[in-house]
Amino acid sequence: MADYGIRKYRLNGALLKRSLLEGFSLLEDGSLRTEGAGVHSVLLPGLDSAQPDCAWGRLSLRCRLGAESMLTVRAFASDQDAVIRNNEVVRIDEFLLDPAIPRREKERLFTLADGMERSGVRDVLLTGQTGRWLWLWLEVSGAEEGILEDLRVYVPGDNFFRTFPQVYQTDNDFLQRYLSIFSTMYQEFQEEIDALPELLDVDTAPEALLPMFAHWLGLETDEALFSSEELRRLLKAAPELMARKGTKWAVEKVVKLFVEEPVYIVERNLIQSDKRHSEDLYGTTPYDFTVMVGRKMDEKLRLRLKFLIDQFRPARSRCHIVFLEECGGLDAFTYLDINGTVLQNAPGSLDDGKALTGMTFLQ
Question: Is the pTM of this model over 0.90?
Answer without folding.
Answer: no
